[in-house]
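Entry type: protein chain
Record version: 2
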Amino acid sequence: MHAFDWLNHQFSFFGLSVYWSDFIGNIFALLTVVLALRRLVISWPVQILGSVCLLVASLNVHLTGNAGRQIIIIVAASWGWATWRRNKANEGTVVVGWASWPVRLVLVAAMIAGTGALGAFLKAMNWSFYPGAPWWMVLCDAWIFTGTVIAMYTQARRYVEFWFAWLAVDLVGVPLAVHSHLYFSGIVYGIFFFMVLAGIRDWAKRTGNQIASPRNGLPEQLEGALSG
């Protein structure tokens, strides 16, 4: 028996059958949000550990899109970890700011286009849920995947909009997790909703109306082009 096989086992959580991987991964995810709200660099390695567990949980219930999402999170968290460490070393603390309106429009367009493109790909390959899964389920899977990529990018760049991206993910993630019998994930997504609202308030208060500089947002060349 492999050392980590127990992650694939279920236990009863107030009458609900919950995978250990789902449970532990979401505990780490909750801790990640708490640490990110406080702008602590340690939030990134905690997020990586949680995503490893949630990757196992997603594979258990054949959520291919969500499994791929965890891989993206692990890769993006490694990059975000490096950017936050560098920013803290330069500024003495992790400095956050708002994205400019042109950048916001790019992020919204990327969310819509990414969801449509990824949804079509997952549907064509039958890689989301089960063969022949309805379009609405596949698009939900794609929405969460795309939203996570955008959330990870904006978090690494220290945009306040990072919290809004997670809010969009949560609004779809709760019913999808329950429908997929990942009940603990559904509960955690619900808790995330209120923590995200607190995150928006806290980061916004710290920034006022400050717009993130090119160094804190998109690469300088793209930011300059968007800003005219």
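Comment: The longest strand covers residues 10-13.
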